[in-house]
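debug: dumping io for the single-chain case to check the tokenizer round-trip. Nothing else runs in this session.
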Amino acid sequence: MSKRELGRSGIQVPLLTFGGNVFGWTVDQAASFNLLDALLDHKLNFIDTADVYSSWVEGNHGGESETIIGNWLKKTGKRDQIILATKVGKPMGEGKVGLSPRYIKEAVEASLKRLQTDYIDLYQSHDDDADTPLAESLAAFDALIKEGKVRAIGASNYSAPRLAEALKVSQENGLARYETLQPQYNLYDRKVYEEALEKVVTDNGLGVINFYGLAAGFLTGKYRTKADASKSKRGESVVARCLNERGLKVLQGLDQVAEKHGAQPGQVALAWQITRPSITSPIVSATSLQQLDELAQAATLKLDDADIRTLNDASAW
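debug: decoded output
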């Protein structure tokens, strides 16, 4: 498995990142353990989660994904075999939100405890916090790196101007900088990233671990008619958002390239992202070993220039 560096962090990761939001949500602990074992078998050892996963499930409070990963680490003793990313900033209860230095210090200890580890490889701001000066948040992150609790930091859901400002603040104050960005990006959702964020990323040598790499399943070809909305809990929203003239054109392009390579549309969609120079490692999720096996093949699928043109034209914004 080829590897790429996360920004200038020195941390090498595979071409695909596994999204741990499914742990404690659509897969229970036993199934999660099986997936984690299989990830290592595929040499996909970069796992992204967040403290807030999966608070949206009835009866959950957040921390479920981190807890399951921590239980797996305790059972297997394989902490040194994975690259672990988590996030801070989304609401976790009264007074537990944002990027104030006080809360960052509190939240990292809670994540470390749930993960049953003494360090996090990549600690990310889950949302921008306009109420806390960037210098204060970055100083708190910098302290965590110096204490050895965090190896590198990243940003998620930042606008291009705020990301550029954060990088400037780090440079001017001699603080650790965001080494990665986690934006929404895929063949259907290209405009926001390509219009402004991509330039900030490339100008500053940041790594990109984009989420919704398969547009919530749309790019697998699962949803082709309105009737397909019944195929999953999120099907209705996916169909409402993506099943339109442009979406169908994207699927047509994916089908064309997939047929040429004897591959699945979802594999082609991920391979297209992997070939983009600014993308480091797209985030993907699976709820079964079969899904994981299929997704893993995207990392070895080689697209040629004609394939890229076909997909770029089909998804032009």
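debug: round-trip ok. The first strand starts at residue 3 and ends at 5.
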